[in-house]
Amino acid sequence: MLNRQREAIYSDRRHILEGDDLHDRVQKFLTDVVSEVVDEHTASSTSDEWDLDALWAELKTLYPVSITIDEVLSEAGSKGSLRVKALKEEVLSDARIAYQRREDELGSPPCASSSAASCSR
């Protein structure tokens, strides 16, 4: 398990150093992680049983959450009307906005539009 993780990290590092665009890979990772976290916290049979406070606490360890539980519930109409798919869409949209905001703050990564050879000069 650790060996596979190490290989994945080295592979990503190699792609970054070579100037590859990892946007699609990051978006897939973001989708997978958010989906998994939401699934873990919505495993109960009904939305009335979901611990949204715990979900939000875990999401905040992953990214700067900018939507509130109340906003999501307001959009759904009530906690009992909230569905997993809608919850995932709201949280994923928020996470993508946070990622884009951070990407804009940092600007383009060095060498993103150039070859690795010109980057190493």
Automatic annotation (TrEMBL):
Pfam families named among the record's database cross-references: SecA_SW
Q: Which InterPro entries match?
A: SecA_Wing/Scaffold, SecA_Wing/Scaffold_sf
Which species is listed as the source? Homoserinibacter gongjuensis
Transmembrane annotation, as ranges: none
This chain's protein is named SecA Wing/Scaffold domain-containing protein
Q: Where is the SecA Wing/Scaffold domain?
A: 2-106
